[in-house]
Each structure stands twice: as structure tokens, then as C-alpha cells.
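Figure caption, in words: inputs first, then the predicted bound structure.
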Amino acid sequence: MPSTSTPFEAGAPVHLPFEGRYSDGRTAVSRRVRIAIGADSLVIGGDDGGPAVTWPLAALATGEPIVTRSVDVLVHAPGRSGPTLFVADPAFVRALGTAAPHLTGAAVRWRAARPLLAVTTSVGLLAAAVAVFDLAPARGIASLVPYETRARLGRSVVGSLSAEACTRPEGVVALRTLQDRLTRAAGPNRRFEVSVVDHPMVNAFAAPGEVIVLMRGAIDQAKGPDEIAGILAHEMGHGIELHPEAGVVRGVGLALLGELVLGGSSGGTIASAALVVTTASYSREAEREADTHGLRILREAGISTSGIAQFFERMLKSEERTSAQNRRMLDVLRSHPQSAERLAVARASTGYPTTPALTPAEWAALRDICRKPE
Ligand SMILES: [Zn+2]
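Bound structure (zinc ion present):
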């Protein structure tokens, strides 16, 4: 008989030391169950010794993050797909926090800064790896990976985002116009691919393989196309310097790149890579490198830097206003520090002939790129 999640025979002598209530998520009734925490899964058995189900630890979510003082925990089935488990036993909560660090307060706070991703992999280790972001050696390794492989990873990352891609045709045409103008300015043999995703965050990020993602929030709040050009040029700077690739090497390791070279990669590793590139908080040095490229690209493209200067200026104002909590959510501030210094640099980089990044009609089309067809 096929059995998907019941590796234990009914009545098998499995020691399930904890007790909790299991709810199927469809009815209000819950039933008493026995639970064990395995090396990589939670084993839940019927109180009557019936068949056990296993939930992979890495895919679990909890109602609230586990903190030191937690006395009970509500655990959601992988994918938050209905069933839940409630355990009111501090010893279980502690053991679960140790076995699945991504459920702890520290990990969840860190992750909350980017609600974009439906990430189901073990976040704790990645968080630690990215926190000690040291680009230089990782970048050396990343530079050995062929462009096609990096681009495949970048596109997979974009595909794994929970936000939908924006594809209104007129908007896509405008986006390509801007993308091509900036790509030509970036230098020979550049192949940037820019996509817009329907997410309200004022943000953009670079994924491996010269893949750039712009969030709708950035377009919504921009006062003109030059601002968007400035943001994209900056992200292209990260791409040129292989910052996203280096982040993946540091955060996920060579194993993932090896897998990609061989052609296969699991959803989990892609999700891990996605987590790294969307949450990467680059060093000041990396940001300066990206800024330098960004301003150069704008100059080559004949686009004014006053757009990006205005953008920084507005961000700086909101930086002064917003609480630390809100600031974390406003990613551009979080991952793009030192706005004041950068504002000065961008303001000083004028003095060449410019034309608007897009015509008024193209800009109107880009602003509508996420609008659904009537
Ligand atoms: Zn940056």
C-alpha cells in the first residue's frame, strides 16, 4: 500500500515522549497525540498507537516565534496547509527551538525584514553565514562560475519569489527600453535582465547572472523615470561586482553551485539562494562599488543623477522620521546605508548632457506594468 507520510507501521514501538493536541484544520475538534523530535523531522503519533505522520523540521512554521520564555507552541504543518499541533510543554518548546532554529525569535526577527519570500528551508544557518558577509574570497569563487549557470540560478530565484511578475505588455516594452539603454551603458558583453514583481516594498535587488528585480513599490513612489534608472544602475553595479553570486557562495556554499553546474537543483536550495540574494545586507564597501558603477552607468547612458539624488533625499528624510522597526521594513534604507554621503556624491555627479530615462508615455506605461488586464 502506498504511504506518503507514514513511515512507521501501526503500533510500531516508537518512543514519542511528548504530548500535544493535533487539529486537522478543517474541524474544530482536536485529538490527543504523542510526539517525538527526530533528527530532521517531527513524528506525530495517535494516542492509540495508530500510524504516525512526520513533518520535516525545516518546513515547519509556528504561530509565534519560539523565545526563551515560551511555555507552549502552535506548530503549523509544512506549507501551513491546515493541520496544526499545539503543545503546552516548555521542555518540548525548548527542544523544538534547538532542533529547528529557524523557529526561534532571533531567526524570525531577522527574516521578518523581508516578508517577500515563501521560504521553507532552514534559515538559521544561512542567517549566520550571511551575517559575516565577507565578499572577497567568495567573489573569487563566484567568478569561476559560467554566466549561463549564474543566470539560471538568478532566474530560478526570481521564479521562486512569492510575488507575481508584472507583465502588462506596454509596461514591459518600456522596461526593456530602459533596461537596454542602461545595459549598453554598463559596458560590452553585459546581459542584464530586469523584471518587475507585484510587491509594495520600495526595493530592488540583484540576483546572480545579471538578473535584477524591481518591486512595484519602488515604481509607485518614484517621482520620475530617472529615479528608477538610478536604482537599476545601482543594482547593476552589484551585478557587475558579482555581489549576489558571492552572497550565494557564502550563504549556501559551493554545493549549490556544483548542483547547478550539473544541471539539477532542488527547490530548497533555490529557496536558500533566493533568501540570500533578497536579504543580503552588503558591506559599505560593496555599496560604494555599486554606487560608483551606478553613477558611471547613468553618465554613459546620458541620464541625470538628480533622480537618484532625489530618491536618496526622500529616503534620508524617511530615515530620520521612521522608527528603527519601520526602517527595517523599508529595505532600501536597510541595505543601502549612508544615504547622506551618497546623496552628496550623486548631487556632485552632474555636468553632462542628459535626456529623460523614458518619455512621458513610456513612463506612464511602466507605472502601469503591474495592472491586470481589464
Ligand atoms: Zn546596494
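The radius of gyration is 24 Å.
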